[in-house]
Fold:
Amino acid sequence: MKMVLPSGSAPKRRNHTSGLPRLPENLQLKEMTNPYSDYGKTEIKEYLRSIKAKIAVVVLSNVFEINDKIDELAYSLVASTDKK
Structure:
């Protein structure tokens, strides 16, 4: 099945980033060979509580981006059937 896209709208490459920091902000790097040796459930829960709002923003922005792409695809499909 050939997918029809509007001209000039090549798919963007994704870089698979979450938009969140690479390391938890409450991680205290004491031992570089095992940086998570003193990072337990308490620290994980504390960090997740602190970034809950950031996660919501990332998820919502991804949802809006997906909706925009669906709208573009639907428009291009309607436009291509109108030409026939």
Observations:
- The chain has a mean pLDDT of 77.
- Residues 52-82 form the longest helix (31 residues).
- DSSP finds two helices and no strands in the chain.
- Residues 52-82 form one domain.
